Structure formats: structure tokens, C-alpha cells
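Budget justification aside, the reviewers requested a transparent look at the raw inputs and outputs of the sequence design task funded under Objective 1. We therefore reproduce one unedited record. The lines immediately below are the C-alpha cells for a 334-residue chain.
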């Protein structure tokens, strides 16, 4: 039996993808009773991107493009990967996983492939899983994707949901590194399943909670109690960042970037204020891309990476919460 040599994990490459089609607040105000002013004040969003199914776009095409960009950035090809993890709630089918179809598109066989369902926490869950698998010695390079085409699950008759979500994908290639101090130095993956009725996509009538309103009978579309999610998130988001700093003994000054799920600008601003996080360490792109669920943390990470704002040796904290309810953080020494 070969002995397992402790190892670390490096980020070999990063990529992202967003659809070309823009859906602005003005567009939405023509479709429903809402306004640009209300949306910007309550969410910080001006526009979001959405896939065009008529052009064959969807979760699969977006996730594949992001992974391809991450591989290019790493100077690698699909067959260099030994595992693909795709985090999403909007994969076209439940069988096969979109991870398998991404593998087919990128010629990655016989790499393992599976989807992770953790809603907006999906990318952070997936990167935590991938780091642990590489450290286990079983895998050497893993492609991690967070991607949601939320426009395929949004009920455009429900204004509280329709204004919030957009479509995007972010991806990284993680690779084994000789330095065990490199990679994820602390991770949180938690959930409180009792709160699931705050955010769910029912498939059949039996899935709908007994006390739900008749409007919630729209099968296949996202149902969300925005106020409940907001109340939960505004506390949990701050707590999970604080827990990550306390557990690692790091201070805000030690961290180069807090890469936060773009849920609602008010939730991010509240955490910034309570924890004293400076503007230049909390990247915001919700104004242009909305809340892209599992896509958002990876998209932010990639935009920071491509801009040279995340460099080797930096400490970076990834943080997200979402349906389930789930929450997750991942502290990295890049
Ligand atoms: O990514 C993880 C999952 N989701 C989230 O993080 C979402 C968390 N929640 C939120 O971001 C916010 O709750 C929303 C943006 C969804 C809603 O904002 P809010 O400030 O919590 O609004 P509200 O639901 O408390 O509604 C306030 C008022 C209501 O009218 P009344 O009852 O006060 O007369 C709503 O009917 O605003 C009304 N409203 C709207 N008005 C114009 C709700 N949606 C809209 C809209 N345009 N789109």
C-alpha cells in the first residue's frame, strides 16, 4: 500500500461565462408591476443576464463554457481532469447529471462527474468537497463549476422573485500542490433543513407545504418567501464570516478578498457594516448580474482573478447561503 503524502491544493485556473442577453429593470417594469427605483433600492440590481433557450442556451452551455475558460486559463484540457463537480439547481435533467454532459463536451472521460445540489451555496460546497478529495490523495485535478440558469426556473408572474435572479457560471480548476499549507485552510458546510419551505422548486403538488398560498402551486418554478430568507440570511451571512475568521485566527486585515454570494446588496452591506469589512475587500457585481444562485461566487472569483486582484499567497474567504437553507464558507491560501 503506498503511503499517503500530505498535500495542498492550488487554483490552477479560473473561468466564467454569462449569457449575452440582458434583462434590465426597465424591461421587467414593462412585464410586471415594479419599477427600476424599487428594484435598485431593495436589491442593488440594475440588470441581469438571461439565457436564450431559442439559441440552445441553458445551464449546460453556460457551465461548459465556464469550465472550458477555466481549463484554458490553467493551460489544461478536459482529459487532464480526474473529476468534475457541477453545482446547480437548474441542470436540464436529473439523470444524467450535467457534470457528465460537461465531461462529454470537454472530452474528459474517464474523469468522475457529479452534480451538487446546495442552491446558492453550491459553488462553495463544491470547492470544499474538491479540496478535501485532493487532500485525500485520491484525485489530482478537479474541475469545479457553480452555475445556475435561474431564468429557466423563475416565475415571471411573481415580481418578488423575478426581479432578483439572473444566469451565470463560474469555474475553477483545482490541482494537487506539494505545499500542505496551500488551499482551503478552513471550511464550513452547514444546513438547517427545517427551513426548506422558504425556498423550493416543487415538482408535484405533494411537494408544496400545506400552508402555502395558491400562488405556490406553480410546479417547476422557484417559490420563495423573500422576507423569511432575508431574515435568515442577514444574520447567518455575518455569522459564517465571523466564524471563519475566529476559527483561523485571521483578522479582516489578513484577508485580501471576501468573495460573497450576491444575494441582495442590503444583505452584503449589513455584513460589511457589522464586521467592519472595507469596500475594496468585498467585490460587488450584483448591479450588473443580479443573484445568479450557484453561479455568483464563482463569477465574482473569476472577475477578481482575471483583474489580478487575487494573487498567489493571498488569503481569500468565499461565503454563501441559499435554499435548504444551506450556508458555507471556504477560507483559502491561494
Ligand atoms: O440567494 C438566496 C436566496 N434569496 C435571497 O437572498 C432573497 C432574500 N430576500 C430579498 O432579497 C428580499 O426579501 C426581496 C428583494 C425578495 C424583497 O424585498 P423586501 O424589501 O423584503 O420586500 P417585501 O417582500 O417585504 O415587500 C415589501 C413591499 C410589499 O408591498 P406591501 O405589502 O408593503 O404593500 C410587496 O408587495 O414591496 C412589494 N413588492 C414589490 N414592489 C415593487 C415586492 N416585490 C416588488 C417588486 N416591485 N418587484
Amino acid at each position: 500500500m503506498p503511503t499517503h503524502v500530505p498535500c495542498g491544493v492550488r487554483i490552477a485556473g479560473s473561468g466564467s461565462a454569462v449569457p449575452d442577453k440582458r434583462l434590465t429593470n426597465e424591461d421587467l417594469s414593462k412585464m410586471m408591476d415594479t419599477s427600476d427605483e424599487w428594484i435598485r433600492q431593495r436589491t442593488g440590481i440594475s440588470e441581469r443576464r438571461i439565457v436564450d433557450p431559442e439559441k440552445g442556451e441553458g445551464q449546460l452551455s453556460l457551465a461548459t463554457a465556464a469550465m472550458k475558460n477555466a481549463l484554458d486559463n490553467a493551460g489544461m484540457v478536459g482529459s487532464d481532469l480526474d473529476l468534475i463537480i457541477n453545482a446547480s439547481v437548474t441542470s436540464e435533467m436529473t439523470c444524467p447529471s450535467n457534470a457528465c454532459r460537461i465531461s462529454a463536451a470537454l472530452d474528459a472521460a474517464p474523469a468522475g462527474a457529479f452534480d451538487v445540489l446546495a442552491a446558492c451555496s453550491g459553488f462553495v460546497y463544491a470547492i470544499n468537497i474538491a479540496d478535501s478529495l485532493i487532500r485525500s490523495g485520491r484525485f489530482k485535478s478537479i474541475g469545479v463549476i457553480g452555475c445556475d440558469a435561474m431564468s429557466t426556473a423563475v416565475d415571471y408572474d411573481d415580481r418578488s422573485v423575478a426581479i432578483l435572479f439572473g444566469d451565470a457560471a463560474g469555474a475553477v480548476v483545482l490541482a494537487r500542490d506539494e505545499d500542505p499549507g496551500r488551499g482551503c485552510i478552513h471550511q464550513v458546510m452547514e444546513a438547517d433543513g427545517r427551513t426548506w419551505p422558504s425556498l423550493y422548486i416543487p415538482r408535484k403538488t405533494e411537494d408544496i407545504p400545506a400552508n402555502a398560498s395558491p400562488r405556490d402551486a406553480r410546479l417547476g418554478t422557484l417559490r420563495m418567501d423573500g422576507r423569511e430568507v432575508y431574515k435568515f440570511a442577514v444574520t447567518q451571512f455575518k455569522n459564517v464570516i465571523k466564524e471563519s475568521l475566529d476559527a483561523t485566527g485571521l483578522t479582516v486585515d489578513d484577508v485580501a478578498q471576501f468573495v460573497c454570494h450576491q444575494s441582495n446588496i442590503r444583505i452584503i452591506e449589513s455584513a460589511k457594516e457589522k464586521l467592519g469589512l472595507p469596500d475594496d475587500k468585498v467585490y460587488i457585481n450584483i448591479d450588473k448580474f443580479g443573484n445568479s444562485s450557484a453561479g455568483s461566487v464563482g463569477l465574482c472569483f473569476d472577475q477578481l482573478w482575471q483583474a489580478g486582484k487575487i494573487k498567489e499567497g493571498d488569503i481569500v474567504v468565499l461565503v454563501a447561503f441559499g435554499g435548504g437553507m444551506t450556508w458555507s464558507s471556504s477560507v483559502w491560501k491561494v
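The chain is about 30% helix and 25% strand. The chain has two domains: 8-180, 184-333. Computational costs for records of this kind are itemized in the attached budget.
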